[in-house]
Structures are given as structure tokens and as C-alpha cells.
């Protein structure tokens, strides 16, 4: 799985916000508090579940995984695959094939990366407060983001932010191709231990690995 396929994630249905929508101060205050929470951390980790649905194609798939994030870097493990991004390079390791694909990290990608979830609203998106709701027994604020660029393949993103600690409980991404992605965050871990090798692929640990360099 490439970073792009995960981020289709990428981190949700075809109803957009009203055309006249402007930045919502209430939503902005919640998003700023959420962003400050994450940016104050050296790193964070979590377990998550991802659901892909496409009602017209009668598709529904569920996957689960683990993620570590530090700034623009992340290390994702999901479904027998690993995606490692050090901010400049992305390694996608396919365990069953013992193959790693190497590509330049795309900072301008329209898809949402795990390291963008808490800052993406700051550029290129309008945001609006939807409602307060209960989700799994937790009080959450629901906020919708819509891209200002109409060529963006994302129609909208719906964030659920926990009221008790300003962390993201889940997000949904709706795409023009009909795909809907839902990400539920579980077991959030602030400042987990990380090392210099956390966000780099080590060939020595994968004997006989096939390297496909796409740069």
C-alpha cells in the first residue's frame, strides 16, 4: 500500500457545505486547541481502524493498524505492510513480497497524511462547526472541512474532536470517486519512546529485500 492509497487517507457523502460558508470562529477555536495539543507533543502513537466504503460499488472493507507520528514524520503498520516517512522520503514495505518501494515524500499531495491531520485546516480549507454529539459514550465536537480548491479530489472531511482533551477521536473523508474513508483512533499514546531508526527503513533488518526506487 502506498502512502497515497492509505491517505485516500487518507484520514469522509456527497453533501458539501453551503457555497456561502465562511470560516467559523467556533470551529476555529476548537481546531486551534486541538492543533496546539498535538504540536506540544514530541510524538504520539495510536491504534486505529480504517473503513473504506463505496455504496454505489457495494464495497466495504475494514482494516486496523498502528501509527507513530512526530512532526512531519510517521511510521504506519497496517495489514502486513509498513509505510515509513521521514518528511523527505517514503518507504512502503510489503511484507509478503519482501519488497520496499522508495519515493519522495509529496508535501503538496491533496491527500491527508497522518502528520497533517492536526494542521490541514490552516491552509486551503474552509471549516464550520456542525454540532456537539455523543460517540461511543464520549462527548465530541463535530467539524467539517471543505477544500477551497475545486480540483481537490476530497469533497469534505468531517472531524470529531473529544471535548475532554481536544484529541481527535475520528475523521471521515469523502472523495469524488465515491469512496468514503473512516478512521477511528484508539489507545492514544502521548510522547511514546522513539529512536533515530523509528522513521527510517533498515535494509539490514530485512534480509533479501527487493528494493524498488521510484525517485
UniProtKB/TrEMBL annotation:
CDD domains to which the protein is assigned, alphabetical: LolA
UniProt keyword list: Signal
Stretch forming the signal peptide: 1-21
Keyword Nucleotide-binding: no
Gene3D superfamilies named in the record: Lipoprotein localisation LolA/LolB/LppX (2.50.20.10)
SUPFAM superfamilies assigned to the protein according to its UniProt record, in alphabetical order: Prokaryotic lipoproteins and lipoprotein localization factors
Protein name: Cell envelope biogenesis protein LolA
Amino acid at each position: 500500500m502506498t502512502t497515497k492509497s492509505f491517505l485516500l487517507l487518507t484520514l469522509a457523502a456527497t453533501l458539501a457545505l453551503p457555497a456561502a460558508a465562511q470560516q467559523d470562529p467556533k470551529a476555529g477555536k476548537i481546531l486551534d486547541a486541538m492543533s496546539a495539543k498535538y504540536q506540544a507533543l514530541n510524538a504520539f502513537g495510536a491504534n486505529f481502524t480504517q473503513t473504506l466504503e463505496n455504496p454505489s460499488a457495494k464495497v466495504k472493507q475494514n482494516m486496523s493498524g498502528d501509527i507513530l507520528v512526530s512532526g512531519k514524520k510517521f511510521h504506519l503498520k497496517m495489514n502486513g505492510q509498513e509505510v515509513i516517512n521521514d518528511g523527505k522520503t517514503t518507504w512502503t514495505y510489503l511484507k509478503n513480497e519482501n519488497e520496499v518501494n522508495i519515493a519522495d515524500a509529496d508535501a503538496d499531495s491533496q491527500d491527508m497524511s497522518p502528520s497533517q491531520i492536526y494542521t490541514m485546516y490552516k491552509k486551503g480549507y474552509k471549516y464550520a462547526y456542525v454540532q456537539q454529539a455523543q460517540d461511543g459514550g464520549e462527548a465530541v465536537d463535530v467539524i467539517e472541512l471543505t477544500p477551497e480548491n475545486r480540483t481537490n479530489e476530497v469533497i469534505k472531511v468531517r472531524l470529531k474532536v473529544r471535548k475532554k482533551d481536544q484529541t481527535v477521536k475520528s475523521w471521515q473523508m469523502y472523495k469524488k470517486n465515491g469512496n468514503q474513508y473512516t478512521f477511528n483512533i484508539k489507545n492514544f499514546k502521548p510522547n511514546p519512546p522513539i529512536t533515530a531508526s523509528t522513521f527510517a527503513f533498515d535494509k539490514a533488518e530485512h534480509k533479501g529485500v527487493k528494493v524498488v526506487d521510484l525517485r
